[in-house]
Amino acid sequence: MNNKANSDSSIGLMGLSRAPISFVYQTASKFKKYFSYCIPSDYSSTGYLTFGKPNDLNNKYIKFTPIPTTPQQSQYYDVNITGISVAGKKLPIKDSVYADGGAIVDSGTVLTWLQPEAYAALRSAFRKEMAHYKFKGAMGLQILVMILAVTRQF
């Protein structure tokens, strides 16, 4: 078995999904399936990960958002997208693009899947914001190639 991580700085991977094999479920008797993940706002900041219910945490700077689950995607964390912004400007994407379902939060993947209209708007805004930087092409790939447009609903 090869359990070596992909990067020299990583020493492992912790699954936080709602799947029975995840760390969250394997430690359910101790932490009651609660965890808080604070994502840093930029590279100079640090985030944190805590386990257990946030008992009476009284801090005006910390806000907790419970993420409900749906029967169709029970192991994932579901969120509803209401808009996408680039450089503080909300993109002109029709509400109907987001109407047929939400999205899942998966901190373990490197891909983002968007409907074609949302992808086109994001790609256009990203290109506009990055226009003053010199772009060096990589093996024929386009800007925002990591964002995949999908043509079907999941």
TrEMBL record:
| GO BP of this protein | proteolysis
Which branch of life, at top level?
Answer: Eukaryota
Pfam families reported for this sequence = TAXi_C (PF14541), TAXi_N (PF14543)
Any one GO MF term held by the record is:
aspartic-type endopeptidase activity
Every copy of the Peptidase A1 domain together lies at 1-154
Q: Which PROSITE patterns match?
A: PEPTIDASE_A1 (PS51767)
Which Gene3D superfamilies does the entry link to? Answer: Acid Proteases (2.40.70.10)
Q: What is this protein called?
A: Peptidase A1 domain-containing protein
